[in-house]
Amino acid sequence: MKLIKWLNAKAAGYAERYRGLDRIGRTRFLVLLISLMLIADYLMFCFHTDKNIFNIFPALPRLDFQSDIVIHVPDLDAKTILREGRRVLVPEKKENYAALIYKMVVKGSKFENTAHIVPVITYVRNIWVSGDNCVIDVDYEAGKERIEAVQGSDDAFSLSLEKSIMDNIPGIKKVHLLLNGFPRKLW
Q1: Would residue 90 be called left, alpha or beta, if left means φ above 0 and alpha means ψ between -120 and 50 degrees?
Q2: At what angle are helices 94-107 and 153-168 packed, to 10 degrees?
Q3: What is the band of 146 on the pLDDT scale with cuts at 50, 70, 90?
Q4: What is 64-103 written as a DSSP string?
Q5: Structural contact between residues 114 and 76, judged by C-beta atoms closer than 8 angstroms
Q6: Separation CA 179–CA 187 (nearest Å)
Q7: Whose CA is closest to 136, among 171, 106, 165, 177?
Q8: Which of 49, 73, 118, 158 is the most exposed place for a label (fewest CB within 10 A)?
Q9: Which residues of 114-137 are buried (b: 16+ CB within 10 A; e: fewer)?
């Protein structure tokens, strides 16, 4: 009972004080009262949602979804394997990721002209990822002129593709490269 009487007395005192203010004073009092109510509302919201009161703005979303990967490509004479870093958008599915890596290895190095290592235009027919195996079935367009390949380029391409896929896709231990469904040399 004493608390209610005390609150009523305080409220009556503030009401009397408010009536005694001029127009600018009343406006200032209302602005302060509304501001304090909004701050108290925000503090109660933070208390009930277990949110930090200083965490006003949401976290900035990640703007760059690209990741750094390593691609292995044969060098100019197909004797050694070059290692290059690339920045790409990594797909969710392993099959799509393997197709992306295959296309990058086929294109060759970004710094040297190694496009002649793969003398045919290839495309991926299908890719299967099962357990620790990745099977890539490819086909190529038959050119009108005779294919002149660098000696050992087929083995260097297969080795660089295998290294690239095993380094970038976790869990892959063996890569099988097929031509129209059969394991044979591409060119």
Answers
A1: beta
A2: 140
A3: low
A4: --EEEEEEEEE-TTSSSEEEEEEEEE--SSHHHHHHHHHH
A5: yes
A6: 10
A7: 177
A8: 49
A9: beebbbeebebeebebeeeebbbb
Length of the chain (residues): 187
From residue 148, alpha-carbon distances to 80, 143, 159, 160 in Å are 19, 11, 20, 20
- The gap from C-alpha 175 to its chain's centroid, in whole angstroms, comes to 25
pTM, 2 dp? 0.66
In the chain, which ranges are E strands?
66-74, 81-89, 121-130, 133-141, 174-179
* Rounded Cα distance, 156 and 99, in Å: 18
Non-local (6+) Cβ contacts of 184 within 8 A are: none
**Tally of CA atoms within 13 A in the half-sphere of 159 that contains its CB:** 14
Alpha carbons 139 and 136: distance in angstroms, whole number: 10
